Structure formats: structure tokens, C-alpha cells
Amino acid sequence: MNVRDAFYEVLRSHGITTIFGNPGSNELPLLSGLPDDFRYVLALQEGAAIGMADGFAQATGRPALVNLHAAAGTGNAMGNLVNTQAGHVPVIVTSGNQARKYTELKAYLTNVDAPRLVEPLVKWSHEPARAQDAPQSLSNAILQATAAPSGPVYLSLPLDDWDQDADASALGHLKSRVIDGSPVVPEEALGALRERLAAAKNPVMVAGPDIDTRAGWDGAVRLAESLSLPVLVGSSPARCPFPTRHPNYRGVLPGSIPGVASHFEGHDLVVVFGAPIFMYHEFADGDYLPAGTELWAVTSDPDEAARAPVGHILIGDPAEAVKRLADTIPSAGRPPLARQPLPQADTTGPAFTEEAIVDAVNAAKTDNTVFAHEWTSTMVTGWDRLEITRPGSMYMSAGGGLGWGLPGAIGLQLADPSRRVVALLGDGAVHYSISGLWTAAQYNIPVVFIVARNSEYRALKEFSRFMHDPDAPGMELPGMDIPGVAAAYGVQSETVKSLSDLTRAVKDGLSSDRPSLIEIGERRIADS
Ligand SMILES: Cc1ncc(C[n+]2csc(CCOP(=O)(O)OP(=O)(O)O)c2C)c(N)n1
Description:
Layout: H1 3-13, E1 18-21, H2 28-31, E2 39-42, H3 46-60, E3 64-68, H4 70-86, E4 91-97, H5 100-103, H6 114-117, E5 124-126, H7 134-146, E6 153-158, H8 168-176, H9 187-199, E7 203-207, H10 209-213, H11 217-227, E8 231-233, E9 249-252, H12 257-263, E10 269-273, E11 294-299, H13 302-307, E12 312-315, H14 318-328, H15 354-362, E13 369-374, H16 379-385, E14 394-396, H17 405-415, E15 420-426, H18 436-442, E16 448-452, H19 458-466, H20 482-489, E17 492-496, H21 499-511, E18 516-520
Helix pairs in contact: 1-7, 1-8, 3-4, 3-17, 11-14, 15-21
Bound molecules: thiamine diphosphate.
Residues 79, 375-377, 400-403, 426-429, 432, 454, 456-460 line the site of thiamine diphosphate (TPP).
């Protein structure tokens, strides 16, 4: 058995048989031996490849593999790797390196000092010292990526390793290695939070993406109901942790320090499960909490805990903690909360308001629909109005890097054909990984891509108003033929001209077995 065979055996033993990638000469010696039970999903650019692997890993709840070309391919992927890291997504990023005997010469396509290239963005970065170590390095990489807190890892693999003899005696052990379980909050620490919650007069809950990742919806809903907790979603979330039509749901926290603090006004206790504290974005100074408000949190990420600027932080699985609290805490006896009504959307036209667009999409979705949301200026409206009824139904770029939404949707769809994915994209965001459309077309991955035209970077215009930095260049996106681009990549599209047309087109897309793109007509910032 050679190193290549052993490498595939280790992947197989972990159930990893899909490889997302974009190949080059350094990777050919691995890929030319691709076994029949593996599938290779070709992306035309590496940012798209890693976005697909990220969506695939999130929807399966399992590690995913991506194979990139040397340093240049890795570099192209690094924008989306920021999102993968922020989202705690277990992606094993591999790249080929030049032959070992040529790397000292810095021969063409040498990934010089490969492990350092992505070091700040991954949990573990490595190049095996010997060819025979590659299967062990892969096994380590998979277990590192998966162990809590999960996250991406990087492995550089020299091209002359694959035909070497493998260490067959070690392979049996490698294939049966298992890491099971994730740390939970000790009972004593959780008991202190239970007492604090029981004593609170007016507590509020903040739920974060890791509640969705770790199957924590049920516990979060039960705890919220028994204590009548209003529930906010943590700022800039990557996944939806709570049903958005539940009476206790109160939308998403904003991105500024004073904005977040203002939502806690009147609450003596904030309890956060599975979110960083907080994903602040907008630069505005202020106090993190109102006077008299205390914050407790549960996270499985020690780094997230250590950098939280305030709070009493418990380390352990947040979904397990919220479930254990829901199982053991007595009801507070407070009256149940009532659902907050949604303001009526303006549908009078001629331009569509973002509320009306979201409502029209809502009217077409089913419980089976999954959203990948990268339409930046309407994020808050999405959190207010999209009807999310079950776990694993809404995802967005975790680290704020555009270019995740389109390929992320493809990965989500490929991972679970029993559900249907709608990507909600801005006409700026769609371009960062647009070549993913080709993969959707060629592999027949039936995502419904919705692109909202406004021919501008609207979120940035709003930001420049907020920051009192007017007149920045580069905000306008005229002259774009998005249906033309879709056609060039092999995806059929239509431009909708009314809200009822939009609902009908989304329904059509959801019932088709082909990918499709819906362009929503022009709406400028001055229109709203
Ligand atoms: C990789 C990357 N580059 C640039 C940005 C900065 N950025 C944030 S929002 C935005 C505008 C997005 O425009 P569009 O998708 O058209 O949505 P709109 O804001 O118009 O709703 C840009 C360029 C980013 N977040 N990520």
C-alpha cells in the first residue's frame, strides 16, 4: 500500500468521500488516484471551493475536505477561511506542495513555509516531516478540526509523497481512532448560573450560532418559556438559533457597543448561550452594559471567553448547558410573553421595499427551505421578518467576508438534498465567488439564487453616513448584466418585476430540479 492509498483509507474511515477543490500540478499525483467511491466537486476559484466545503460541513455537522493549489490557491481561499474560522466550521484545508527535493530551491509553485501561510486563521497548520507521516497528519487534522471548539485546519502535502510505501502497520490504528464528546459546564458552575437566573427580576437571553450547531433549539425554547425570557440573537450571527415567530423572539442585536447596551436597558441579567460577546462591528464608544446589568455566558470556545470584555463566562457546550438549565430550573411564574407584531411592509411601489421583498420570499418558502443570506443592507430586516421554524435553516457569513453566501448555499444544498436552499444575495455580494454558479449548473445543484439589484454598495453607503465619512469612491455598481453572467455559467434566470412575480418565481425555483437565478429589479438607496 502506498501513501496515497493510506490517505484515502483514513478519509474513508471518517466518512469523508467528497473533495471540494481546484487542482494544479502539485495536486495531480493525489487526485489521479481518486478512488471510485469518492466524488470531486470542482470549483473554478478557491474562495468558492472553501465556501462550498464550509456550507457542506455546516449542514452535515461533519468535517469536510477541500484541496487547493499550493500557496496561490490557498491565498485565494483565505477570504472565506476567515468566515470558516469565525463560524467554528470543521473544514480540512489541504494543498499540494512542490516535490520535497525542490522546495529548498524554491522551485516554481513551492509553498514556502506552508504552515505559516494560514496560521492565524486555523486551529492547526502542518506539513508532515516524512511522506509516511501524511496519513497520520491527515488523521490528526480531522480530529483537530472536529474537537470542540471545532474549526478549520491546514495541511500542506508535497507532491512526491504519494507513491512512497505507507506504514501499513500504523494504518489500522489510524482508521479506528475516535474522539468522542465535548466539554460541558461543571455542575457547580452551572448551579451558580441557575441561582442567578432564579434570583433575576427581569432577565433576557441572547442566543448565538452555536445553539444551532449543537442542536440546542429545544432547550433554548423551553428555558425561554419557563422563565418568560425575551430572546435576542447575538450581533452578526452566522446561524439562526431560535424560531423567529416564537412569542419570545425579539430579533437580532445591533453591531455597536452602545446599540447592544441599549437593548439590555431595564434588564438586571443578560444570559448568553453560544455567541461571542459580542460581534461588535460599528465603531461607537460607550459602556458595554447599562448600570446595574450583569452578564453571564456559556461558550465552548476558551478564546471567545477570554476576549469577552465583560461577564462571568462558563466554558462548555452551550446547547447542553441550556438544556440542563431548562430541565432543572423551576418556572419563574411570570406571564408568558406576547409576540411582537411586524410593521406592515410598504408594497405600494414602484420600487420594492426590502420588507416587501422579504415578505414575498417568505410567502414562497416552506419549512423545508434553508436560507444562505448575504444581502448585507437588509440583514436586520431578514432577522425581523424571515420565518424560520426549524434548526439548520438560516446561515450567513460568520466573519463578515463577502463571498460566502453563493458557494455556501451550494455546499448546504449538496449536503442535504431533502431540503431546498435559497441564497439571498446583494448585487455586490454575488460577485465575490460568482464562478460557483458554474458548479451549481454542472453538478445540477438546485439552489435558488435571488439577487437584489440596487447597483450600489448600499451597506457601505449607510456605513459612511453612520461614520460621517461621506464621498468615498467605489460605491456605485452600474452596467451589470447579472442574467447574462448567470447564462454564461449555465444557470437559467429571470428578472421579476412585481412582488407576486417574485413569490411565484421562488416557488417555481423551489419545485425545479435545476439551479435558477432570480434577479429583483432596481432599487436605489434614495428610493427608500
Ligand atoms: C470580502 C469583502 N470585501 C468587501 C467587503 C465590504 N462590504 C461590506 S458590505 C458591502 C456592500 C455589499 O453590497 P451588496 O451585496 O450589493 O448589498 P447591499 O449593501 O447593496 O444591500 C461591501 C463591499 C466585505 N464585507 N467583504
